[in-house]
Amino acid sequence: MKKHGKRYSSLVKSINQQEIYPYQEAVEIIKKTANAKFDESFEIAMNLGVDPRKADQLVRGTVSLPHGTGKQVKVLVLAKPPKDQEALDAGAEFAGLDEYVEKIKGGWTEIDVIIATPDVMGEVGKLGRILGPRGLMPNPKSGTVTFDIAQAVKDVKAGKIEYRVDKTGNIHASIGKCSFTKEQLAENLNVFVNSVIRAKPATAKGKYIKSVFFSSTMGPSVRVNELSFQQKD
């Protein structure tokens, strides 16, 4: 069994674990308990009433957070000239093709997002075994396979994130930093949750959002009343 330190145990005691909080109050609690020696990420975990084993019940999507994630995102663009230079001009840390394909084959994955142009996906596809398990494989549905490289890089840098339900029906995402204001976190959360709601599969039956929890990187979680979010069409 995992043992927690005195700091974590003390934080757990300060929270009523049996209560389900409105999201605004839960945001305040997480901000208050995020007292690690670094700026912790603010995280959300949602359990959905879907069966991810069925292809028509996979929940995935992308969403642009109005206040970004607070994280410095390292972007690699796999593209031929002149698109590689376009990527660098737009703010990508790395851009090119053959050099980076070989580096990835050698185990290099020190990036957060990979964007690729459609004409190089034949080469990128060979990296699926490495990139797939790490969530780095470019995908047209997430906007990371495109010829509009400059816009794709800018979107990612501005706070566009991808989410996908895992095999247990959970979606987890970092939607900002605990140093963000309550208002900034609330706006990011509402945008994220409403995106997940809009992504509900037509074949999903029963209750869609079964539970929602907030937490910080190093802190305990708080259960949130999913009905307290401002749902928008």
Helices and strands, with pairings:
Elements: H1 6-13, H2 23-33, E1 41-48, E2 60-64, E3 75-78, H3 83-90, E4 94-96, H4 98-105, E5 113-116, H5 121-124, H6 128-131, H7 149-158, E6 160-164, E7 170-177, H8 182-198, E8 209-216, E9 222-224
Parallel strand pairs: 3-4, 3-5
Antiparallel strand pairs: 1-7, 1-8, 2-6, 8-9
What would you say this structure looks like, in words?
It contains eight helices and nine strands. It is an alpha/beta fold and 233 residues long. A four-stranded antiparallel beta sheet has the order 7-1-8-9. Helix 3 runs parallel beside helix 7. It is globular and about 55 Å long. The relative contact order is 0.26. The model has no long low-confidence stretch (mean pLDDT 92).
Summarize the structure.
30% of the residues lie in helices and 21% in strands. The chain has 233 residues and is α/β, with parallel strands linked by helices.
List keywords for this structure.
single chain, Rossmann fold, Ribulose 1,5 Bisphosphate Carboxylase/Oxygenase, three-stranded parallel β-sheet, 8 helices, 9 strands, 233 residues, alpha/beta, 2 domains
**Helix-strand makeup class:** alpha/beta
Strand content: 15-25%
Low-confidence region ranges: none
End-to-end distance: 43 Å
The portion of residues assigned to helices is: 25-40%
CATH architecture of the largest domain: 2-Layer Sandwich
What CATH first level of the largest domain would be assigned?
Alpha Beta
Question: How would you sum up the major sheet?
Answer: 4 strands, antiparallel
- The overall pLDDT, averaged over residues, is 92
| Major sheet: arrangement of strands | 7-1-8-9
Encode the helix/strand succession as letters.
HHEEEHEHEHHHEEHEE
